[in-house]
Structure formats: C-alpha cells, structure tokens
Amino acid sequence: MLRDRLGDLEDRFFATVFPGRGLLFLAMLFASAAMPGGIIIAYAAKPAELLGSPTFTFARAATYEIMNLYAFKMAAVFMISTSTLAIRTELFARWIAFLGYAFALFLLLSGRYIERILMLFPLWVLLISIYILIDNLRRRPQAVATSP
Predict the structure, then answer these.
(1) Structural domain of residue 97, as residue ranges?
(2) Contact by Cβ (8 Å): 111, 72
(3) Nearest partner of 53 among 101, 66, 27, 45, judged by Cα
(4) Is residue 103 situated within a structural domain?
C-alpha cells in the first residue's frame, strides 16, 4: 500500500531495506510461534515431566524475548524509516510521521518494562491505513480523456 503510493519517488535504499525489515520481523514472528508449538508437542508426549523442566522455562523465556523485545525493536526501526520516508515524500500527513517517531522511541526504550506499549505499532499501522483510505476516497477519479 505504501509502495504503491510512492511510485517514482521510491529510492533504492528504501526499496532494498523495506522488504528486509519486513522479512526479519516475519522470521522473528515465526520463530516465536515455533517454540510454543514445540512445547505443546513435548507436553503431549510427556505432560508430567515438562511443566517443571528447564526446557519449558527456556522456551517460554525465549519466546517472550524474541517476540516482545526483538521483533518489536524491528517494528520500531520500520516506523522510523517509514516516517522519514513520509516526511521526505509527503506520503502521508507529517503529524502521523512525527507520531511514528514518538511511538518508535517508546518501543525502543520501554518495550521490556511496559507490556501494553507493544500495541503502539499496530495502532500506528491502523492510523496510516485509515489515513490512506480516507485520502483515496477524497481524491476524485481523473476524467479519462477520450480520443475522437
């Protein structure tokens, strides 16, 4: 959606880094989902032995760290670079870009201490989506010139 709006304004750095950040976030998301999946399979095999085991404790801690800490740090980097691009290209309103900087700063500095702050990333993405939707609805379709 953002890349469609950029068109010819997209630079090479953004075109290279944008998919990379998304893939890294997605890889962290899958890794954090795979660990509890493995624990569920292990629990099905030996339920009595798993709950107090170090393996269970490790998997819970690793899942928390990957998803709630590192993946959302990548989301904050995404917010910073997208906000910078938005300011340079007027992709969306400047106030949303500055809000993205503020949200990213909060995510980078306090993700481990305030768990509900992790909702800032999806809220910011929702805000951009709503803005683009409203902006697209406001634009009137250009009249198609007919040739004689």
Answers:
(1) 2-138
(2) yes
(3) 45
(4) yes
User: Counting beta carbons within 10 angstroms of the beta carbon of residue 125, is it exposed (0 to 12), middle (13 to 18) or buried (19 or more)?
Assistant: middle
Ramachandran angles phi, psi of 144, nearest 5°: -85, 120
Helices (H), 7-70: 12-45, 47-50, 54-64
Quote the pLDDT of residue 91. 81
- In whole angstroms, what is the distance from residue 136 CA to residue 43 CA? 50
Q: Are 117 and 110 in contact (CB under 8 A)?
A: yes
pLDDT of 96 reads 93
Q: How many domains does the chain have?
A: 1
Q: Are 28 and 62 in contact (CB under 8 A)?
A: no
| Domain assignment of residue 53, yes or no | yes
Residue 148 covered by a domain: no
Residue 99 has what pLDDT? 95
Rounded Cα distance between 86 and 96, Å, is 9
Distance, CA of 132 to CA of 137 (rounded, Å) = 9
Mean per-residue pLDDT, 37-52: 78
* 60-93 pLDDT tens trace: 888 888 777 777 888 888 888 888 888 888 888 8
CB 67, CB 29: distance < 8 Å:
yes
- At 102 the pLDDT is 95
